[in-house]
Amino acid sequence: RTPKVETFDTRALQQLDSAHFLHPFTDHAALRDKGARVIVRGQGVYLWDSDGHQIIDGMSGLWCVNAGYGRTSISEAVYRQMETLPFYNSFFNTTNVPAVRLAAELVALAPPQFSHVFFTGSGSEANDTVVRMVRRYWDILGQPERQVIISRRNAYHGSTMAGASLGGMPGMHAQGGLPIPGIRHIGQPNYLEAGQGMSENAFGLVAAGWLEEEILAVGPDKVAAFIGEPVQGAGGVVIPPATYWPEVQRICDKYDILLIADEVICGFGRLGTWFGCELMGFKPDLISFAKGVTSGYVPLGGVLIGKRVAHALLEKGGDFNHGFTYSGHPVACAAALENLRILVDERLVEKVALDTGPHLKAAFNELATHPLVGHAESCGMVAGLNLVRVKGASMHECVPFERALQVGMLCRGHMFELGVIMRAVGDRMIVAPPLVMTRAEIDEMAARIWDCLDLTL
Ligand code: PLP
């Protein structure tokens, strides 16, 4: 079906936008003169702006449009559900058909230790839920002093009070009275930054050891849980060494601490497995998810609950006094069911593992030969370029961080004009394309990134 082509008055839209729309994470004073880019349409891996420019979306929107744009079967599923039952809540002894079916489908797709799902409207709400859930769990078990949740610096876990507190972004903690009490942060497993003089695997053990140091500093009987993204996304695509997560698991087991995977980005095939923990070799007690569960077509998030926590909450906990009007929203769940059907039927997760993921790696290794790039890494359908390395120097010798930031910002300035969206995060340029991106489209994206780097030289 070809969507009707509308024309837009870009300047008028930008003026309205500037007058009334307060955007997330945006410096409005800096944006005012040039105006926001108005995105009007999407198909496959491409977007179009209000002036008719075609852009290849290297970021899947915000790491979420895994099934690509223009999936009419999702819009039809949403339409049908809206006609049948647009809303009913799941509070007070009621449920609805898409929410029941989706909970069962998610448990079937998740690793075997999971039995239940709690639905939210977003990833931030999922992580807020996790904070209350793990503290409630230890209450039920008669250990209410287990309150502390350990996370990592530069992690991103959302923008709500608890989500942003779990996150370790200094810019976020500087505003709004964060973090909330009982959240501690350790270093991230960033080999390029902190692994000098060590093999990657040796560094993985050292970085996991920071968790044990923190547990001992806090007191093991006060620690409730550790949370981490299998591969840190918004913090700059930080791919941990293979030794890291198994060692984190060993430490959590040793001190009987709950292990939480924030799979808001890594879940639903991004790394070439259904969940990132499967690739990274650990077995979390809880998984927070969002984004790829509906490919972003309708907001939905949630927490997958392992049997250990589910048993306490369901059998011994009475009411869990927590929930959102839109927990188990039937329309969002209908969108998720159709989206998951697409991922399964089109074998998109296997494709990432065996075909497009390796192709993206090869394309990024090629980009690493550009004079502005020192190092490239990728995992499934996420990839990053380090802009700061000195050509020919060791991986750990950087030109100043400020220069990398400057390069990143310049690149960002050129991206839209060259028709590609990627993100500048600190000293890295990163992508997380839709899982449907073909080899030819990966090559096209990489060529546009190369041109963008060239213009920045
Ligand atoms: N967790 C991770 C790892 C994320 O990347 C994000 C969003 O980017 C969130 C949580 C928050 O999700 P949301 O923006 O849906 O609240």
TrEMBL record:
InterPro entries (UniProt xref): Aminotrans_3, Aminotrans_3_PPA_site, PyrdxlP-dep_Trfase, PyrdxlP-dep_Trfase_major, PyrdxlP-dep_Trfase_small
Domain of life assignment: Bacteria
GO molecular function: transaminase activity
Keywords: Aminotransferase, Pyridoxal phosphate, Transferase
PROSITE patterns (UniProt xref): AA_TRANSFER_CLASS_3 (PS00600)
One Pfam family hit: Aminotran_3
Cofactor(s) it depends on: pyridoxal 5'-phosphate
Family: Belongs to the class-III pyridoxal-phosphate-dependent aminotransferase family.
Protein name (Swiss-Prot/TrEMBL): Aspartate aminotransferase family protein
